[in-house]
Specification:
single chain, 81 residues, mainly alpha, 60% helix
Length: 81
């Protein structure tokens, strides 16, 4: 795992563990909604990642991401552009 992938994962886990402390990277293959995250959680996570990585996400693209791993990959791609 690259440094940026690890950083994005750590940021995501810090936010997600507020809701469920048992989450870890193995949960990234699960759907956002299977983990009882709602749209507000997704918005907050997006804002945190944008601020931390100094990037701007496309809200339409974010709305189409269902798995946490897709979400992570999207932000890794933004951060490496």
């Amino acid at each position: 795992m690259s440094d940026i992938e690890s950083r994005v994962s750590d940021i995501m886990l810090a936010k997600l563990r507020v809701r469920d402390p048992s989450l870890d990277r193995s949960d990234f293959d699960k759907s956002i909604y299977d983990l009882d995250l709602d749209s507000l959680d997704v918005v907050e996570l997006t804002q945190i990642l944008e601020r931390e990585l100094k990037v701007r996400a496309d809200r339409r693209e974010i709305a189409n991401l269902m798995l946490l791993d897709e979400f992570r990959s999207y932000f890794v791609l933004l951060a490496t552009r």
